[in-house]
Design the sequence.
C-alpha cells in the first residue's frame, strides 16, 4: 500500500473517532446543562451553530479531518432531536 492511501485511511479514522466522541460529549452536555440561545419566537439550536461553524471552516479552507468530524458530531446530535427547528412552536 502506498503512503498516500494509508494517510487517507488514517484521515477517515480521525474523522470517525472525533465524530463519535464529540457526538457522545455533546449529548452528555445537552442532557446535563440547560444553556440555550432563544427568544420567544426563535431557538438557535446547536446544529445551527455547527452549520455556521462549518461554513466558516469551509471559507477558511480548514481541512483537518478531526475538526470536520467533531463539528459533524455536533450537528448530527442536534438534528436527531424531536425539536430541532429554528421557529419555536407554541405550547
Sequence:
Amino acid at each position: 500500500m502506498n503512503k498516500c492511501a494509508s494517510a487517507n485511511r488514517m484521515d477517515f479514522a480521525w474523522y470517525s473517532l472525533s465524530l463519535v466522541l464529540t457526538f457522545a460529549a455533546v449529548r452528555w452536555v445537552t442532557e446535563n446543562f440547560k444553556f440555550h440561545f432563544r427568544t420567544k419566537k426563535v431557538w438557535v439550536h446547536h446544529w445551527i451553530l455547527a452549520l455556521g461553524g462549518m461554513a466558516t471552516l469551509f471559507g477558511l479552507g480548514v481541512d483537518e479531518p478531526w475538526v470536520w468530524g467533531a463539528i459533524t458530531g455536533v450537528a448530527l446530535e442536534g438534528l436527531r432531536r424531536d425539536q430541532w427547528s429554528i421557529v419555536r412552536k407554541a405550547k
Q: What stands out?
A: The mean pLDDT is 86.
